[in-house]
Amino acid sequence: MTLTLTVQDLAAGGAYEGAAVYVWHCTREGGYSLYSDGITDQNYLRGVQVADADGVVTFTSIWPACYDGRWPHIHVEVYPDEGSITDSANAVATSQIAMPQEACEAVYATEGYDASVANLSAVSLDTDGVFSDGAELETPTVTGSASAGYTVAMTVGVDTTTQAGGGAVAGGPGGGGPGGGRPTG
């Protein structure tokens, strides 16, 4: 999966150049590095990119699993600059990306995502504790296929007048800090 986020500065009305974007998600089995049993000493499926002049950051990863009780998602935090990422209190926006059901079903039909099939059938965006208030602004555009790989793209609007401390991405709920990523219900 290639994840491309375009970060927009809502206060200035343009690209949020220089913003540091931190993303993280779970493994095919539903665990989080740095948090889940057996992988607390590991650091993977996490990364930070600094937005270019167009506000764009791009990550290459795997498709996140669907674990018990949560809709498949990717966590996102935005920091004002690269130097701010060492303290989660510096985040100016925090949210999660709701992965589209059709693509999830295609990925979960492939090897390694066995538990995700049952977990996805037992949850919906309406029953998910984070997305139940609406996921329209947190659902990306997805192109590609499970066999060739997916491209996931989304615009992330950030109100840069928000004080640091984890303000929500425009239209989105909160999501945790660096090193975080523990499952929420």
Can you give a write-up of this model?
This protein is mainly beta and 185 residues long. It has helices at residues 101-108, 114-121, and strands spanning 2-9, 14-15, 20-24, 46-50, 56-60, 73-79, 93-98, 141-145, 149-158. The strands form two sheets. Strands 1, 2, 5, 8 and 9 form a five-stranded mixed β-sheet that branches. The two termini are 25 Å apart.
Spell out the blueprint of helices and strands.
Elements: E1 2-9, E2 14-15, E3 20-24, E4 46-50, E5 56-60, E6 73-79, E7 93-98, H1 101-108, H2 114-121, E8 141-145, E9 149-158
Parallel strand pairs: 1-9
Antiparallel strand pairs: 1-2, 1-5, 3-4, 3-6, 6-7, 8-9
Summarize the structure.
With 185 residues, the protein is mainly beta. It is built from two helices and nine strands, in the order E-E-E-E-E-E-E-H-H-E-E.
